[in-house]
Amino acid sequence: MDKGEFRNCSAGPVVMPRLMFGGTGSGCGKTTVTAAVLQALTARKMKLAPYKCGPDYIDPMFHRQITGSPSINLDSVFLEPEKLRRIFTWHMKGKDMALIEGVMGYYDGQGGGSKGSSYHVASITKTPVVLVVRPEGTALSVAASVQGFKNFREDSMIQGVILNGVREGMYNFYRKLLEEEIGLKVYGFLPKDSKVSLESRHLGLVTAAEQERLSEKLSVLGELAEKYLDLDSLLALAKTAEPMAARDAFDEISPVGYVRLAVAMDEAFCFYYEDNLELLRRLGAELVPFSPMRDAHLPENIQGIYLGGGYPELYAKILSENERMKEEIRQAAEGRMPIIGECGGYMYLAESIQDGNMQKGGISDGREELWPMVGIVPGKCRMTGKLGPFGYVTGTGRKDSLIGMAGETFMAHEFHYSVMDGGTKDFILSKSNGRGWSGGTAGEYLYAAYPHLYFYANPEIAENFVRAMEAVKHDD
């Protein structure tokens, strides 16, 4: 591929080699296969553009660890097709190939439909799909299952299969069975290998930064991919993808201010949509990372604070004992500095976190400790050990706030294992199935709530945030 030609093209169709690894369901090995292929192709000196279907934060951390490039969420619930295509092609600029990791089962989307599914994203981006299958406990039935996935939709985009968790001696049995029965090419397999297992906890996999011996595991995965997967044929399949028009996802975005924004980035606060950060940059914000765990002070000369999601419950003691940082955030709030706290950030801004003695594996031993937090948001956060409201939500403000006027709606996503006792209920939240609840704290200079905002679906929220910061700068 002529990278220069691709980089300079802004509208005409260009060749964009691309591939998706979809799966039969959660736990089939999509992340393992994706990581293995990314590692192997990176070792071949290929420049890869990694992506993840849906609102996941953790898998993209592994992609970035391997490739050195940000991994981008492709979410067809948040984004209409043209916006999603623009996000996709913009991040492919200057890359040799795109590799997309699917989400859940291949057809699983919002509310029991396919919107937001791997299939939906593959259809929008016209991406060839290789289905990851774990055939353990089956024989001929695996062919029936795969054929069902391939034929469930006429335009399924499924072009092949990778087998996961297969003993080497059984691979040819399964390969011959699948290729003869349903005519789909099998692109190899990954064997069971405890040395490369990725640890899990209550919000999914343990993050890349926390995995023990991660570099060693990834190196082994890459070696397994080179040995047991037909990488050359996978690359050839990626090149069969039809050309796409390359457009700038952010070409209509202009600065609305020139500000410095402190963004919490450490083990406790690490869940951010990459395109949220990019949109803020395009709107004129300089992003300044800081650690509420380790830094004694906020960054200098800032006009706003952004606290994303993560695992504050696992680091509650450290966060609580950093009194200087908590006090500076309180002073910033009293000084009318715009602050966004999403999910974990919301928990940190509350009065306290009762952690249930959560360990790094996400398991509580039943003992509970109460840790005082920043305290600018009413409510005491308590870990419950079970998943709270989960999924895409539509939020409506009950009063004017930093993110919008009363009555205005926004799209967001919730995923947490805690509740906020005694908190305010400034946002009405609802799911597509009609279920509704309320929560969160809204203020002229504050958004603090469980839902994670996705700015590219709600660009006016990001604009309001930067404008509020610009106003603070001029008031100083």
In short, what is this structure?
This protein is α/β, with parallel strands linked by helices and 476 residues long. Residues 1-10, 200-205 and 359-366 have low confidence and may be disordered.
Description:
It is a single chain. This protein is an alpha/beta fold and 476 residues long. Helices cover 31% and strands 24% of the residues. Strands 4-3-5-2-6-7-8 form a seven-stranded parallel beta sheet, sandwiched between helices. The chain has a six-stranded mixed beta sheet with strand order 14-12-15-17-27-26, with helices on both faces. A five-stranded antiparallel beta sheet has the order 25-24-21-22-28, with no helix packed on it. β24 (427-430) and β25 (436-439) form a beta hairpin. α2 packs parallel to α3, α2 packs across α8 (214-228) and α6 (141-151) packs across α7.
At CATH level 2, the architecture of the largest domain is 3-Layer(aba) Sandwich
Instruction: Give the fraction of residues assigned to helices.
Output: 25-40%
Number of domains: 2
Helix count equals 14
User: What would CATH call the homologous superfamily of the largest domain?
Assistant: P-loop containing nucleotide triphosphate hydrolases
Give the distance, in angstroms, between the N- and C-terminal Cα atoms.
51 Å
Q: Report strand %.
A: 15-25%
Number of strands: 28
* Arithmetic mean of pLDDT: 90
Rg, Cα atoms, Å: 23 Å
Reading side by side through the largest sheet, how are the strands ordered?
Answer: 4-3-5-2-6-7-8
CATH class of the largest domain: Alpha Beta
Question: What's the story with the biggest beta sheet?
Answer: 7 strands, parallel
**CATH topology term of the largest domain:** Rossmann fold
- Structural shape: globular
Low-confidence residue ranges: 1-10, 200-205, 359-366
User: Structural class of the secondary elements?
Assistant: alpha/beta
